[in-house]
Amino acid sequence: MIEFENVSKSFATKAGRKVILDRASFRVTLGNSLGILARNGTGKTTIINMMAGLEKPDEGVVRRTSRISFPLGFMGGVIPKHTAKENCRYIAQLYALDPDYIEAFCRWLCGIGAYFDMPVGTYSQGMKSRFNFALMLALEFDIYLIDEGMPSSTDVEFNKKAGAILRDRLQKATVIVVSHQPKTLEKFCRSAAVLKNGQLYQFETLEEAKQLYDYEAQS
Ligand SMILES: Nc1ncnc2c1ncn2[C@@H]1O[C@H](COP(=O)(O)OP(=O)(O)OP(=O)(O)O)[C@@H](O)[C@H]1O
């Protein structure tokens, strides 16, 4: 479970204070995947980072009682001067998992050949995102955090393999996806929320959330 209790978060910007959350309270429970709709620049990444524990609230409490992933696409835990092999063996140890298994899984899934034994800093953007996604799928979390949908890989073989594993994983796991596009959420979640004026408005269905989101766009 992830629970926000009276959480406030804002940033000082040149244009004034940017409020992301204003004493917001909500909860995401296991088995109830949630899509969050928010316009660009309103705080999608900040909320996902707070759920992951990468960003702290100014006030209030964020409670995390499950195994929660790093946000898909987040490379902060990967050291660029080390190879994918070294990175994934090290990360396996942090999570108390078998380094041989994690290495073999990532090597097989990301399909980057000899680059797997070269520094991550030398990878193309596509290779980096494939390695990041493979690592996330190798680790098995209760809740997966996804910022703006899936990484865009042009590698058809990778997309097929990773997509199949993710679909299987999501049978058991919970996913939280933030996006400015309702279409991105359709694939993952039935229930949805809208981030607006520092509050998260939760709805039973994506349809209901879309009504508020579309209404906002018109007004
Ligand atoms: N560390 C920071 N310092 C100052 N302002 C910040 C900081 N991080 C984010 N912001 C501002 O807070 C607002 C929300 O940022 P955030 O990246 O969470 O939004 P987003 O909805 O994910 O944006 P986008 O859709 O453009 O990716 C933006 O106006 C951004 O400029």
Keywords, please?
219 residues, binds adenosine-5'-triphosphate, 2 domains, Rossmann fold, single chain, alpha/beta, 3-stranded antiparallel β-sheet, globular
Within the CATH hierarchy, at the fold level, what is the topology of the largest domain? Rossmann fold
Helix/strand order, N-terminal first: EEEHEHHHEHEHEEH
Overall pLDDT score: 91
Number of domains in the coordinates?
A: 2
Q: How many extended strands?
A: 8
| Overall body shape | globular
First-last Cα distance: 34 Å
| Each distinct ligand | adenosine-5'-triphosphate
| CATH classification, class level of the largest domain | Alpha Beta
* Amount of beta strand: 25-35%
Structural class by SSE content:
alpha/beta
- For the largest sheet, list the strands in their spatial order: 5-6-3-7-8
Provide the helix percentage: 25-40%
Radius of gyration: 18 Å
CATH architecture of the largest domain: 3-Layer(aba) Sandwich
Describe this structure in words.
The protein is α/β, with parallel strands linked by helices and 219 residues long. It folds into two domains: 2-66 and 178-218, P-loop containing nucleotide triphosphate hydrolases (Rossmann fold); 84-175, Rossmann fold (3-Layer(aba) Sandwich). It contains seven helices and eight strands. It has helices spanning 44-52, 84-94, 99-110, 125-139, 156-172, 182-186, 206-218, and strands at residues 2-13, 16-28, 34-37, 59-64, 143-147, 174-179, 191-196, 199-203. Strand 7 and strand 8 (199-203) form a beta hairpin. Helix 2 crosses helix 3 (99-110), helix 3 (99-110) crosses helix 4 (125-139) and helix 4 (125-139) runs parallel beside helix 5 (156-172). The protein is globular and about 50 Å long. The relative contact order is 0.19. The model has no long low-confidence stretch (mean pLDDT 91). Bound molecules: adenosine-5'-triphosphate. Adenosine-5'-triphosphate (ATP) binds at residues 11, 13, 18, 20, 38, 40-46.
